[in-house]
Structures are given as structure tokens and as C-alpha cells.
Amino acid sequence: MLLAVRNRALRSAVLTTRASLARRTFAQVSDAAAVASKSGNLDVEPYLLEEHPSVLAGDKDAIAKLPPFVISRERGFLPRQDPLVDMPPAFSGLSSLLDRMTIHQPADASGHRATGLLGNGEFGDAVLDELKPDGVEAKAVDAAIEAGDSHLLAALFRDYCFATSAYLLEPVDRAFRETGFYTQGRSVLPRQLAVPLKKLADKLGHFPYMEYASSYALVNYLCKDPHFQGNAGKYSFDNMELIRSFEDASGSERGFILVHVEMVSYTGKLVSATEDALRACNKRDVKAFEEAFERLLLVYRKINESMETMWSRSLPQDYLKYRSFIFGTGPKKMNAMFPQGVVYEGVSDEPQFYRGESGANDSIVPTGDNLLEITAHMPNNDLTKTLRDFRSYRPKNQREFLQQLEARATLAGVRAFAMSSSARSKALYVLLVDQIREFRNRHWMFTKSYIIQRTSYDIATGGSPILQYLPNNLSVVLKVLEESFDDFTTADATELGNAVDAKSANHRISNVELLQNVTAAGKRAGAQRRMLEREVAELLKEKEDRIQKLGGDVEKGRGMLGEPKEMKRGAVGCDGVG
């Protein structure tokens, strides 16, 4: 109720101020749910975990029933509790299936690794044989929902998502492994999976399909040593293992998932600095604003450093080995693996279409986009609609936070305040935009190396067009960076150069370092944008030429569904990180 009141209040405020937002369309602003008091005061935080009455009162029973994902200054976008690993006895049948499912089973005492159910094409039959629509698992799911223990519910949702994706996509992966061709997935999800999954999804506020945060990544890790000392503490990559996996829990799939988890482990500091920056902006407190932006810049650097380790921890040539299992069943009319969608038996006779798991559903970059008002610069086109649709595939609390943040930053005028308060705040803003550029640029480099060089299939796991979606977003960031650097004047450089420059308790990043980095970022932005435009034009032309040589058949041009693929390139695709 409190959140609804706040949302209505700020939505009203957004509508009254939209006329002054030259770079924002009505649609961009009015669809952003937001937070404010009835008086219109902007100095109000979103409903963070630390603010929740049950937490303030120490009510353990009420806390246990809070959603698994409630954003906090301590854990950021990680779930409130580390994921449940050992499931209750009632779910031993489901757990056994998921343990035996993984293609490369753990090594035995002699080092031998058996082939799992998915490797033998036996998972679907095992589901039908071992799980019954009215079996013990179905009754136990109902009891868990009634009890409301969100820790258990989150783990159950993860497990039913893994079972669902494995069941639906097993034929797709099997065909690829045996023939080098993709084929259609199963079009009916059996009642013993469909009904519990839908009930759990409704209870938790998710789509009834595998998502990045709620199943594949952020509810799928275990920390071996709670006191581990590493760059990310107990969430350091070397201290984590997977709970569930499709292909190999010790190989590149582990790297792909756990690098994401390590990155997200820094988001407590990200959320804290974001909230403090908004508070300082509303109070027009320049020093506090600079301090919060400096912290924000430091944490984005940490996240980008962690992201860079993906190259060695999840090898590009391995991605096709598990990629088949994170496709979606949608978007409608675009997914040739599920041309008629999927019927959830016992739920609805209407086919369902859901986007696949994608790191694009992570909240790290959208936080920066919205706080820095980059989202306002996104063009009004289908690619931006896809970006906003991606933002619906995440926990409800994170959806609301991002929607609120977009509107709150707009009303507070974060960019205008940063660019007019001091040379230091202006420099920090430019370098924060540059961190978003670095993230999106690395994502694009991943895409080229893991996907484009290895497949002609150009639809990503989340259903976006690979050759257009990521470059569109990166291009917008580069334009914002160029504009912001143009606003950094000679006078700003002089002010920054003449300011007291000692690294003190108040300045962890010196003015000299800021000035050097701003200059480098500004010089790089324009050249990179022009190179990106040429690169994308060449890739699109190559795609068009390939299709024309095949008589204009788009699906043949993708090397998809029955068409031979070029073995040197592999049939993979990915949204990857961010």
C-alpha cells in the first residue's frame, strides 16, 4: 500500500514536469513508476530492505515471508539470503532428476565422468516416468506456498525452471549434438512441471520460465567458505560453485554464471551510492554529491574488472555446449524453435511465449542508465521497446526500483546538477558514463567473439536481434558521452587542475587522475562510435548477402532448423552480460 501511494504521487509529479524534459518523450517518462511523498518531496528513498517495518522491528517470522529479492544497501541485487542448496525430502525425486540431468556428471573416485540424462536424450522420458501430476512434489509445492517461506520458494522456482528448460529444449540440443542442426523444441510442458512452476511464479511475481536473477544465476551459487578473503569476499569466483547446471558444473558454464554472481556481489555499494547521490542532488549538496559519485565510479570499476575475467573463466569456444538450454519460447513469431509457443498443460490451452534467460536482465547497467539519465536519450524505436521489455524479466522489487529510479533522477535533474555544480562533479559524471560505455562495449566484444564469429544465427537467447540491439544501446551511450565531454570546457579543466589535488580522506580519486581520464574518454568516444557504425553496417551487409545467395530465405540465412551450419562457426547465440 505504501509503495502504491508513493508511485501514484510521483507519477503525478512526472506528468506535471514532462513539458520541461526536452530529451524525454511522454511515453518514456509516464511509464516510470516512482517514489515521492504526497507533498511532492523528492528526498524519499525507495522501499529498501533496511526500511521495511519487519526488519526495523526484528520480526523474524515476517522477514522470512518477504520476497527473496528485496534490494538493500548491504546485498544490492543479490537475493536476501544465499540460495538454498539441500532441498527437503519431499523434493528428493526432483533433485535426483536435476543431479542426473547434467551432461557431464561429476567425476567418480577413479576420475571417470559418466554421461547424464541430457547427454543421452533421456531427460524428458525420466520426467514423465518419475514425476507425477498428483505426486508428492506437487503436494509439497502447495504446502510450501501456504507456509510462505520465501527461501524455499526461491529454490523451488529455480529447480522447476531448470527442469522446464531442460525438458523443452532437450530435442534442440540433442539434434545439434548429433547432426549439427537445430530443431524445434517440445511444444507442451507436462502438468507435473507446468502447474507447480506457474503456482510458484505467481507467488513470487516472476514469469513461469527461467530468468537470469530468479533461477539461472543469482539463485544458483553456493559459497564454500563464508569467511573467504578475496576481492569480492565470500562471493569471489574461486569460492563459489554451481548448484544446478545443464552441461558441466565445473567448466565454462560455471564461469559464465559465477562471473555474473561476483559482479552482482558489488551492487550493495552500487545501490548505496546511487541513493546517496539522489539525496545529495535533491538537497543540492555538492560535496555529498561528489562523494557519492566518486563511490559510484569506484564500484563500477570493480564490476568492470570482474566482468573482464569472463574471457578466461568461460571460454568462447565452449559457449555452444550449454547455450541451447537458455533459449526462450518467444518472442512470438520470432522464435523458430517454438513457432507455436508452448502450452502449459493444466494451466492454459493458450500457447505461452517467454523470452529466454539473458544477462541483459541484470540490473547493474539499467541502474547507471537511469541515474545518469541515459535512458532518456534512447530513441523511440523497436530496439528501445525491447530494452524496456527486458527490464520486466527480473524480480518485482528490482523492476520497481529501476522504474522509480528513472523518474526520481529525472525529477531531481541529476545530469543537469552534475554538469553545473563543479568541475569535479562534471568530470565524475563523464567518467560514470564512460564506465557504462566500457560495460556495454565489452558486452559487444563478447557477442562478437562468443557468437557472431561462430554462428550465422542472429537472434539472441532473450529474443533480440544481435546485430542491432547491442550496438543501438552502445551507440546511445557513446553519443551521451560525446555530448557530456563537449560540455566539459577549458575552464572546467583549469578549475580541476588548479584545485587542491592531494588524495585525502575526502578524495579517493585525485583531480589529476580525473582530468586525465576525462580527456581520454572524450577523445575515444567519437572514434569508437564511428567505428561501431561501420562495423555494424558491414555485418548487416554480410548477412543480407548471405540471405540473397540462399534465395532470400531468412531462416536459411541464419543456418537454422534443418539447414547445415558452418562447423567452424557453431550454432550459438547469447545476450551475455548486461
Could you list the spans in which at least 5 consecutive residues all have pLDDT below 50? 1-7, 11-45, 562-578
CATH architectural type: Up-down Bundle
CATH class: Mainly Alpha
Strand order across the biggest sheet? 1-4
Radius of gyration, whole Å: 24 Å
> Structural class of the helices, strands and pairings?
mainly alpha
Per the CATH scheme, the topology name is Methane Monooxygenase Hydroxylase, Chain G, domain 1
Number of strands: 4
What share of the residues does DSSP label as strand, in percent?
A: under 5%
Query: Could you report the average pLDDT, rounded to the nearest whole number?
Result: 87
Q: Tell me, briefly, the overall form.
A: globular
Helix content range = 40-55%
**Number of separate helices:** 24
Biased composition (Basic and acidic residues): 554-569
Binding site for heme b: 443
InterPro entries: Indolamine_dOase, Trp/Indoleamine_2_3_dOase-like
GO molecular function, one term: oxidoreductase activity, acting on single donors with incorporation of molecular oxygen, incorporation of two atoms of oxygen
